[in-house]
Design a protein that fits this description.
The complex is a heterodimer. Chain A is mostly helical. In chain A, about 75% of the residues lie in helices and about 0% in strands. The longest helix of chain A is centred in the last third of the chain and has 39 residues. The chains are: A mainly alpha, B alpha/beta. Chain B: GO terms for molecular function: G protein activity; GTP binding.
Chain lengths: ~160, ~230
């Protein structure tokens, strides 16, 4: 584990805060605290569906509870980065940095997101190249030796 | 082909290189809001002082590789937010910590008065072998001191804690606090007091030599199908 994007919430914590949230929901009034604690656990889940649910809860808080806006923006960025929605994640990071341009915690998150985009971009390119090469080989193997001879290609190996 | 090789080299380095450390120790940093927890972490990992440090959101994470008794150790440090609204969730980060740095501000008595509550949390949520190190931060502001060294030293002794006064601003005693904690943890491993196999010891042992064989690289040349 090398950064905050790798961290996974222990399932007993997720269940604990989920229970509080659902109890309040059942009683008809969810406090911002319970909603935030549950959402904070959800965006650290290993399941994308949980993360998406956490993002929805955070968006709702962002629109309804002014006091914690910077916290909600931060975890919206983390949640989106964890489901590889990097552009959305960077959008939230930028919104945060407009208010606190020198915030080291958020600048460091921005670096981690960029690093992941770069790494996954390279894997994508490598896969494309590998796919391209194997396709070429497949076409080449499909040609009969006569066709190869006609093409005048001499194989040296 | 060149590109293909370049990628392969890149990914080999990235994914399967040997560990360059033998152990991982998990630390947490706890204490009231504004005592300088993140500044201590930043001073330790970056050797710089962060002026105007904003309140941490949730938890922040930092790492640094240090050396104790000739062994390379990677410190994974969780710096928790001091604000009350994060406290319920940050408690889950205590679990499995090998070291806990408990920080107060020598110029604000209230942050010292709250130490027993932080200590109770730490004792309840960590292992008996967890090393707890008390840090009185902002020692550069001696003129505004609100807690004497002797008083804090006595509190530390009574509770079996290690203790220094430090300054994240000047860097005084910052290295010492992080390194002394690691030494104590390492000592516990050597003495057999800390069980490396326990799930929540906060220590992972990594073989210093390549832990896993490098993935066999695909054939460097494409076999010709003629």
């Amino acid at each position: 584990m090398d950064d905050v994007l790798d961290e996974v919430v222990p399932s007993e914590d997720l269940q604990k805060f989920e229970k509080v949230y659902h109890e309040q929901l059942h009683q008809g009034r969810v406090t911002p605290k319970a909603q935030f604690e549950y959402a904070w656990c959800l965006v650290r889940s290993k399941y994308a569906a949980d993360i998406r649910k956490g993002i929805l809860l955070l968006k709702d808080l962002f629109n309804s509870h002014a006091e914690g806006k910077r916290d909600y923006l931060f975890y919206l960025a983390i949640g989106n980065a964890r489901i590889k929605e990097y552009n959305k994640a960077l959008h939230y990071v930028k919104a945060f940095l407009e208010i606190e341009p020198a915030n080291q915690q958020v600048l460091s998150l921005e670096r981690q997101i960029n690093k992941r985009m770069e790494k996954e971009g390279m894997i994508g390119i490598a896969q494309e190249i590998a796919f391209g090469l194997s396709n070429e080989r497949f076409i080449w193997r499909s040609l009969s030796s006569v066709e190869k001879a006609k093409k005048g290609v001499v194989c040296l190996v | 082909m060149y590109l293909n090789l370049a990628f392969r080299t890149h990914f080999t380095n990235m994914t399967s290189g040997p560990y360059n450390y033998s152990y991982i120790f998990k630390y947490i940093i706890i204490g009231d809001m504004g005592v300088g927890k993140s500044c201590l972490l930043h001073q330790f990992t970056e050797k710089k002082f962060m002026a105007d440090c904003p309140h941490t959101i949730g938890v922040e994470f930092g790492t640094r590789i240090i050396e104790v008794a000739g062994q390379k150790i990677k410190l994974q440090i969780w710096d928790t937010a001091g604000q009350e609204r994060f406290r319920a969730v940050t408690r889950s980060y205590y679990r499995g910590a090998a070291g806990a740095l408990m920080v107060y501000d020598i110029t604000r008595r209230s942050t010292y008065n709250h130490l027993s509550s932080w200590l109770t949390d730490t004792r309840n949520l960590t292992n008996p072998s967890t090393v707890i190190f008390l840090i009185g931060n902002k020692s550069d502001l001696d003129g505004q001191r609100d807690v004497t060294y002797e008083e804090a030293k006595q509190f530390a002794d009574e509770n079996g804690l290690m203790f220094v006064e430090a300054s994240a601003k000047t860097g005084q005693n910052v290295e010492e606090a992080f390194l002394e904690t690691a030494k104590k943890i390492y000592q516990s491993i050597q003495d057999g007091r800390l069980d490396l196999n326990a799930a929540e010891s906060g220590v992972q042992h990594k073989p210093a030599s390549p832990g896993r064989p490098l993935a066999a690289p695909p054939a460097a040349r494409d076999n010709c199908a003629c």
